[in-house]
Amino acid sequence: MQKRKIYRKIAVLWRMQETRKALQPVPGSGRGCGEQTWEKRRMRRKISRFFAGILAAALVISSGSGAVSARGTDRAVMWSAREAEDPEKDILEDNGDAGGSGPESNAPAGSRTGDDVQGSVGSGSDASDGSGAGDDVQGSDGSGSDASDGSEAGDDVQGSDGSGSDASDGSGAGDDVQGSDGSGSDASDGSEAGDDTLDGNSAPEAPQADPVGDGTPSERAGGQDQMEGAVEVLLTAGIPAGEPQVFQVELSGAASGSEEAVLEPATEDALDPPQASVRFPGLAPGSYEVRVSGSGYVTYTQKIQVDGLEYRVQLYAGDAGVKTAGSAHPGLLAKGDLNGDGKLDSGDTDLLVNAIDAGEYRPEYDLYGDSRVDLLDLNYLTRIMGQSREATLERFIPLDAAEITVAVGGIHEGSVDQLSGKEGGLTLSDAGSGMELDFDFSRYREAPVMEEILIGAPENKERAIAEGIVVIEKADGGSVVASVTERAAMSFVAAQESFTITPERDGSIRISLGGQIAVKRVTFKITKTANAGNLAEISSVKFVNDMESRIPEPEMDIPKNMAVRTSSRAFTVSWDRQNNVTAYEVRIVSEGRTDYRRTTATELNIQQFLGDKLTNGMVYEVSVQSLNGEWKSGFCASAEAVPKPNGRPDAPDGVKVTGGYRSLDVRWKKMEDTDSYTLYYREDGAASWEKIEGISGTYCQVTGLKDNTRYQVYLTGVNEIGEGPASLTASDKTISGLIPAKLPEYRLINTSNGEGKLSAHIVSAAISGASMVDSPLDQKEGSALGAFDNSYTSYIDRQDWDYGGAYPGRGKGVTVELDAVYEIGMITLAQPMDLGEFAYANIQYEDESGKWQTAKNVTISVKRSGDRKYYLIKLKDPVRTSRLQIGVGHRYGYYKVAISEIRLHTYDSLERDILDLYADDLYITLKDSVNQAVIDALQERLDTKDPVCGEYHPERDALQKELDAAKALLATEGLGQVIQVNPGITAQKDSGLSLGGLMGRQPLGVTAAAEENIVVYVGNPGMKSGDAAKLQLVFTQHYAESGGLLDKVSLKIGRNEITVPKLSSTDVEKGGALYVQYTGNNPEDQYAVRISGGTSFPVLNLYRVPEGERAEKISSYTAALRAYVEKLSAMHMEEHQSGGHAQVEGYAYSENTCILNTTDIVTDYMMLSVPASQVLAGLGADADSSMDGTLKAMDRMLLLFYQHKGLTDSFAEGTAPEIVAKNHLPYQCLNIRYMRMFAGAFMYAAGDHVGIGWGSVPGLMNSVPVQADAEGRYVSGRYFGWGIAHEIGHQINQSAYAHAEVTNNYFSVLAQAKDTNDSVRFRYPEVFKKVTSNTTGYAGNVFTQLGMYWQLHLAYDRGYNYKTYGTWQEIQENLFFARVDRYARDTASAPAPGGTRLELSGGRDQNLMRLASAAAERDLTEFFTRWGMVPDDGTRAYMGQFAKEERAIYYVDDAARVYEKTHSKPEGVTVSSVTAKDNGTGDVTITIASSAPEGSIQGYEVTRTFIEGGKPRTEVAGFTQGSTFTDHAAFAANHTITYKVRAVDKWMNYSAEEAAAPVKVGGSGILDKSGWTVTTNMESRGDVLPPDGTDELPCEPVKESSITKVINNDQTDLYTGTASDADPYILLQLNRQEEVSSVSYVCDAAGTPMSDYKIEVSRDGETYKEVAGGTWTFADGMARVHFTDTNHRICTYDAAFVKLTASGQKGKEISVTELSLFGPSGDSVKLEAQGIGELKTDYVYDSGNPGEKIPAGSIVFTGTYKGNPAYNVVVLYDADGNIVGGTNSEGELTAHQIILAPPLDDEDAVLGNVSEGIWIYWFEPEDNMKNKLPEQVRAELYRVDNALTNEGQRLVSDTPLVEVPGTLPGITIEKTPAEESE
Prior knowledge:
By secondary structure, the chain is mainly beta. The chain is built from 21 helices and 111 strands. A hairpin with a 6-residue loop joins strand 32 and strand 33. The two termini are 32 Å apart.
């Protein structure tokens, strides 16, 4: 049967609906989410109106003693309808400034009919005697519209403004007879199959009905043309696709055509799936066929009968929520025809299965478009087979059928041809007379019939239509003029006929014509736009022919009034509570990534995004959608959340200053929470600071400074809160361009001829790739004589950091020609200004045979003469040449090469002769030929000046040290310590460990100042001098910032002259300890190192030292340390005040910053680089013992950590080398260093070190090794604090699954936990709350999240926490995370019992789930799901090959494991009883009793079981370790829940389940109080005054009010207070916007309640509106008041603040026990046993249509409901989940059902989308159900989003099982007096 038209206005009172349909679950299309949707089959709804004077039925139940009326009981449902006094009352009114609004319900007087009988301001519309099953009789302004005797099957008879329209005797199957403005129109005798017959204003003869009822043109329009049809195919992508999908769309039949359609891949920010369409216009009437084909798709075909309309075929490509027959739905282009046979069958699945098994990827097999071929594709293919594929045809009037003109105004953009909606639309302009758009259809013989007009939403919302007029010229000559008026958030209702004009949420406008009308012309007259401008935009216009099956959709329960409140690194999102939903999903999008959170609350605090902390200043897009089971409402409009700091920014870190020419280059680290920076600078010693504000980046150049002057600099950060603290002060000198560098003239070749003149002996100088600046000598390009002119104003400029030094080559450098051949041994050069430092040098020369050679053993070093630098290039082996090329390069790329002056020096053998005194590369042994005479001769040469220039050798000081060393050796005094480099400490040996944070630095026991020249001697027996050594010298900055710790330089065998680099510009001593680092991998290497220069300090090196040697080394070290610390201050005065090192001179001694105050302590696994004085302070009196203990504690703690990572040096005999290579203990060490803390840090881990502050160092010296028993249970001792282990954890985290601030804390717990619950950092109640929350995502607290990892340890590690094992094999057997980390290092070693190998390709969470299941050899899906993690396909496949973990290990804690290890497992642990009680506030209390032995129960898991669609759905409610549990179940209001409890014993095994009796959760609409705050002006004796202020809380104490008692849900906690200066008030701040309709006030009998009151609400806390007032009336200590508007009508308000004032009660004592707020309570259903029986007499439920009745003898089930009957469905189920009565062969219900709805009892109430009434579910006598009834039945109430297609269907309420009487009582449903009077 064709669906009936349904006419709906807010004023309509729905009376009943009939359903003949079963609820069927069908698979969902969501990836991996197991979604189900519900569909209805062949549903037929009938919805009636009550008109004035008709009252609903009163239910009467008959028993053996006679009829008993239920009218006087609480089951009676008595209704009355009231007359509509004013047609305008049909318009929705806005009631309540604070958001309270609701449509008022009015039913027009005198109307009454059968199904869909509609009347507006009519009196007496009747369906006369004899009408058979007359459906949808409508009257509008009709005073006597009748369907006369004998009319049969007459559907949709309508009258509009007709005073007597009749369907006369004998009309057969007359459908949709309509009267419009007619006073006596009739459908004459004998008319047949009359569908949509119209009566005109002058009552013309009714036209012949359309035999097929399809609404094609049926009236004359006055023209002669025949309207042409069209076919459109609209394709929508149903699954993702990485590449464009190409389809061929073909049309065949009376005309043919073919066109290509392409679905492009979706963009990341797309809100809708990609679409493409093909349209075939100009089609003559006839039969056609559409054919759509695409590669890999089953070809789609559909036949279409075209007859002057446009027909649209909507197809989803790949997947769609395709509905079954009987409801409008899109078609499906099924993907998966892999073998190309045109169908989907086992042949296709076989091919796909083979590809999955083989691991083969083929693009055409990637059915789901995710670039993988896996089980998801197979799931899709098997699911899609057999789905319905043919689309429901949509019918429109072709837009090109109209002659479209812009009658008034002009066209600003677009054209009328673009109104189809595919080309951008049309923008009209107003020239002063308005805008008018005309659509003319008058040229057609048959006027097009339309039922609705859709005006598409404008892209620019400011150009939307706000006001105007719509003129409809009908084919019968009449016309309708409807006004569009601007009313905020309201529907626009036309003033004439039954037209409605409704703005949709997307900005479009829907014009409903109230039925199908033949139209000649449509005119839009636009008088106002949204911004009152002169432009109006219309994106599209559609004329809808057939809307019979459409009922306007209600609200989709999309969350409203979403609000975002931001704080520092967090934000809170809140929204209005929605009815008929069970949860919400929050979507967060940032930088192309998306995170989701689920909650049952209406507020959520977000502190993490995808597991990482939020970033202040980052934009996060937030939106929310409602959930109910698998139903989703769709997301609301998004809002931006930008967390902002709650304080001023921290001081900038890493400030570095480099002097430039009259300028400073300042750089610093980018800081969080900082919008800009302010730079302060001053000349050293000046009183005031200059500043530069508003710096956005991390670099600033300060210019306009003095020459050669030291400046100090500091920075501050600035944000909107203010300016933060100052950074450390840094300083440097500016460079002068006026001071020339003083180059040596010792043995100078190119002596000066005067400034600006070419030096002696220079013939030419040439450059390439560079230029000469300001040189009069160089007029030709490529000449560089200016570099030899003794002038610093001319210079070579190379715009690159290197000029042949680092990357040499011919032509790269300065080529100079001399006038003769000279033996050159040294070159000096200078820059025009000291910018950067040259670190590379290359010398090439032409030998005496004319060949170019490269000089060997060339070194470059920086020297200082006065305030200028110069560079000394030395050639160990002199070269004889007259032509040479000089190349240099900078160490870093910041600076360009510039050379102002070059000098060449002849060779002097003095340095070689002095160094030749030594017999070895370490320069510690003299040759046999050395005697005092040789040394004296060399001393004399060293003391002799150059006779030409009068200068000593430029390296005189360094050579004097070498000569003094030779003198000491000759006197047998010996030299400084030689360090033997340990070749076993190397990164190469640890490469298989996947372990970060290690370092290979070996201490040299020397600290050196920045820019100090030192000599490093390197020896190796197998190598010769000058060979490259596999060693690096590592420089460090003492007390460095985290990013400025170290630098490195490679070493060579022999003597290495090195200048210590300056690593910091902070205004403290610069320099630090030196280290050597071995870069090779040869255990036989024998490198030794000696340092000449710097200052030695004590070092304790216990690396791999046997136990018997430790004590002596420790004792020697502590003695040396004590002596060293005692002389630190004196050493500083001696070496740093007069040592000639500029970077440490001028600083007063500070033990915190002096580079001398340092020491290194090395153990097997750790190096401590910390201040010497703090080490000594921490050791205490017994230094040796403390040192031994603390170092053993460190190594034992690290050994414990490493065992849990599966690392050891002990392997069973025969262990494979490849296993050893990946599982040995590290050869390198971790490094804890004394560092400068950055803002907010107490300790930190970065790169290859852990940084600690000054105050943390002594604590490193007093740890005691932990002693444990044989099982690893703690006995005594103490490892280091949480922080040290925390930072070490960062360093050794396994990167495959590392979760910052979580997994590293595993090691902190391991170091401290003593197998008790109170010795771990997290709290187990929070853990249990998380694993029972049914939420996805991480726990909100990092410590709670840590519990997940610790539980895995507890569940699978058999020893206690401190247990260690002898061999690697034992470790693998006993330690869970040892196996996890082993498999992370070597995935091939992981178990794969089902053949699926371990792959770590899924990211952190997926990797962890796979690794954990491998380590446990159990499927841990349940465990990780409880923790909110969602395995992907790869993870499910890997975990699924293991047996499932049956234990409830997500409830394990430390105490349980101890109990389990120390007790025998009891038998028969059971739950003996469970009771559940609804508390009426949304809370349910569960009480549990158990017979288990004392102490053996870990706790009780409580689950909720809902029945949906007759099938149970169970979810975890919580876990309790007590005998009661309170379930906060307000989200499940009006649902029936069966609570079940299982005991969990200490072994984590479940007991049998015990269930409580079902309980229905109260649906009172009470609001959740979590998150509320409450304030008052009253003072109470219960207010608390904290103790006096402390150092931590120095502020004046603030009194804490006890007013919080009024919202703590405790009915026994009484608050009493007094306000002395004003009327008392209580302000409830909800901290989110809620729908509020009433308040309840509880006052204990012992208190003094308020009398008079005033209640106000506010959205913003500033503007309040009074919503209630009067005197409280109490019943049993409780009063409740409903909110009203100014007309005293009951209203619901949007409010974030509710204020209760006790009027006129200033100074009086006021008591309150509890305050509660209520909003809409949602849909509800009840089923009563007394309402089940056998109907004694017929009940005609439609007074105007006697055929619509429930016949006597029917089996009747009745109950009450609250909801919207247009969108509710009731279904009855038996105890087994079967639909009562079942379904027929076509899936239709055998039962009948109606829902009856009244107007509200209170005529002043404002009707929303909720009403209350009764429902009746029955079986007629011929159904023979009397002896087939089940023993028990229950009702389920569903709500849908679309009343005909039943989209969005979800369960909103249900009932417990009700007993069916064994002997059915007789039931009479009586007419009310009002009905009798009719």
